[in-house]
Write a structure and sequence with these properties.
Oligomer: heterodimer
Order of helices and strands of chain A: HHEHEEEEHEEEEHEEHHHHHH
Structural class of chain A: alpha+beta
Strand order of the largest sheet of chain B: 6-7-8-3-9-10
Structural class of chain B: alpha/beta
Shape of chain B: globular
Helix content of chain B: 25-40%
Radius of gyration of chain A: 29 Å
Largest sheet of chain A: 6 strands, mixed, barrel
Number of domains of chain A: 2
Order of helices and strands of chain B: EEEHEEHEHHHEHEEE
Distance between the termini of chain B: 19 Å
Number of strands of chain A: 11
Number of helices of chain B: 6
Helix content of chain A: 40-55%
CATH superfamily of chain B: P-loop containing nucleotide triphosphate hydrolases
Radius of gyration of chain B: 17 Å
Largest interface: A-B, 26 and 33 residues
Chain lengths: 360, 220
């Protein structure tokens, strides 16, 4: 360890070069990791933030809440079975308009019971209540110029809402969420379609699933999220790029390390000749790789953290600590694995060559 | 009678040279005692280095045995050889072979775990105590070789093996380096074998062997 550190210090220019490459590559990897999580959240955070475990949908809905449709009979059955542990949720894509502005803004309505556990916290204004024609918006709308206490209008029905609060991190299928009460939702639907007959999209269930009600299916939250349109495809693609980069970076430092150690063959020969055990040489090599990769990973982690603070809110970027740690730990692990090539090479060095000047 | 440190008994080493077999060492016998400075001379390619490698437990012989400090080390498995080198043999190589990233003193303390007082004493004896905190790249050739000599004598090893220690030095410095080796060998009661083709330092040796065609003949 001491020897390894002295060598790093002495040849610091060489190792600094590797370190810079490691930091840049890991930074890129972590940045991608933030993006993949951010994009995932842009699709799913509205659902992910709900503190529920299961959803009950109609059995023909293909796990899509927007497509599901529960009849009044089924609704009553759900309420009978779960009591206070079930609450209705309706999700619909619509358009909003600012007052005196024709431009349509995409919105996903989450229609909830304001006194249920689906109601969200706000960082500005107050939480959604049962008061008619009030609405709580994602902070994305704030950056689009809508302010607290503004009046906005549902483009389809023309019903106006007063903005009473802003919440953070509520997206559904890349569109920001607006929370309204179920009663207001029904009003909108009736305005648009007089035939609307008070059906409910789905129920959000707290706790474990109970017996299945006829014509419905129960899914876990994770199943619902995975089935969101685009979620799986995006996640898979970026995650693959991310892991590929982790492996490539680890290999790059493995190769650099191998080359640097090739130049030190004579030194290793001398060390072996004067009776340095292979186990000590292995420790020497591994501790150098660890020092380079661990410090590189940490620096990259700090840089990404700093950058995430500076990014604008509209950027889909979200760092999950467990994910970051997993990426960095795997990188360190693969780097160590890659250095085994160097270890094998060093193990094969014949100390006898040092006498007679064969290394010259 | 001083103790025998190294005993080479009937050593044979052959190499395959194309179709034919080349006998590098042809039934070599050699004994080196405590406090004895043995020099082996001979033309290049005569097998001096091979002999040193075999005595230094880095190469196995095809026949014969090696006894080091009374222990028949040639019978031990190869895995043990590294430890034998560490504990029983001090090496002085051509071109010093110091590690560039260690200061002169650290070549002993960091690598061999020699305690700093001992290092200071040794460096003083070799009159290099002023460069103890210098990196090898800042030292002259003679100073480097003296640090290498210090490294060889730092352990408790009874046997010192020196491979052309004057090769990279001019005659004055070369002679000085060999004088240092001789002095330490006598003072610390070590047994030393030096391989060289530098005939100008032969007067410093206690015993001289000439090596030719795989045979050793004593000439002093």
């Amino acid at each position: 360890m001491r020897l390894a550190w002295k060598e790093l210090k002495y040849n610091w220019k060489r190792y600094l070069l590797i370190e810079i490459i490691v930091v840049l590559m890991m930074f890129m990897v972590l940045f991608l990791s933030g993006l993949v999580q951010g994009l995932g959240r842009a699709v799913s955070s509205g659902v992910e933030n709900m503190s529920v475990e299961h959803f009950i949908l109609s059995d023909d809905a293909e796990k899509l809440i927007t497509v599901s449709n529960l009849t009044t009979t089924q609704s009553d059955a759900v309420k009978d079975t779960y009591g206070k542990k079930a609450t209705p949720i309706d999700i619909t894509r619509m358009y909003l308009q600012k007052e005196n502005d024709d431009e349509k803004i995409d919105v996903t309505y989450f229609a909830i019971n304001p006194s249920s556990y689906l109601n969200v916290d706000v960082y500005k204004g107050h939480k959604l209540t049962n008061k008619t024609n009030t609405i709580v918006l994602d902070d994305d709308y704030e950056s689009k110029g809508i302010k607290l206490n503004d009046t906005i209008k549902d483009a389809n029905s023309g019903i106006s809402f007063k903005v009473v609060g802003f919440t953070k991190d509520a997206m559904y299928g890349h569109v920001s969420v607006a929370y309204i009460s179920t009663d207001n939702y029904k009003a909108i639907m009736k305005e648009a379609n007089p035939m609307f007959n008070n059906t409910v999209h789905a129920y959000a269930i707290k706790g474990s699933a109970k017996k299945i009600i006829k014509g419905t299916k129960t899914y876990t939250k994770q199943e619902i999220i995975k089935s969101l349109p685009g979620y799986q495809a995006e996640q898979m693609t970026i995650t693959m790029v991310e892991w590929l980069l982790v492996v490539i970076t680890a290999f790059i430092i493995g190769i650099f390390f191998f080359i640097i150690n090739l130049q030190k063959e004579k030194e290793f020969g001398v060390l072996k000749a004067i009776g340095t055990r292979m186990s000590r040489l292995v420790r020497f090599i591994l501790s150098q790789v660890c020092m380079i990769s661990i410090s590189g990973a940490l620096i990259a982690g700090v840089l990404v953290l700093l950058m995430s603070q500076a990014l604008p809110a509209t950027m889909p970027f979200f760092l999950v600590p467990s994910q970051v740690i997993l990426v960095l730990a795997s990188f360190i692990f693969i780097s160590i694995l890659g250095s085994l090539a160097t270890v094998i090479r060093v193990a094969k060095i014949d100390p006898a060559k040092i006498i007679g000047g064969d290394f010259e | 009678m001083s103790q025998t440190v190294l005993k080479l008994n009937d050593i044979v080493k052959k190499y395959q040279d194309g179709e034919s077999e080349l006998v590098i060492l042809n039934h070599i016998n050699l004994e080196v005692h405590e406090g004895e400075f043995v020099v082996i001379v001979g033309p290049s390619g005569c097998g001096k280095s091979t002999l040193l490698n075999i005595a230094g437990m880095m190469l196995s012989s095809d026949h014969g045995g090696i006894t080091l400090c009374g222990e028949k080390v040639s019978a031990l498995p190869k895995k043990k050889w590294t430890d034998i080198r560490k504990e029983n043999i001090g090496f002085i190589f051509q071109n010093h072979q110091l590690l560039p990233y260690l200061k002169a003193g650290e070549q002993l303390t960091a690598l061999l775990g020699t305690n700093p007082q001992e290092v200071k004493k040794l460096f003083k004896e070799l009159s290099i105590d002023n460069i103890i905190d210098q990196y090898p790249s800042h030292l002259s050739g003679g100073e480097r070789q003296r640090v290498a000599i210090a490294r060889a004598f730092a352990s408790n090893a009874k046997l010192i093996l020196a491979d052309e220690p004057t090769a990279s030095l001019d005659s004055k410095r070369g002679r000085h380096a060999v004088e240092m080796i001789q002095m330490e060998v006598h003072k610390r009661k070590k047994a030393a074998i030096m391989v060289t083709h530098d005939e100008r330092v032969l007067d410093l040796a206690d015993k001289i062997y000439r090596m030719e065609d795989g045979q050793l003949t004593q000439i002093k």
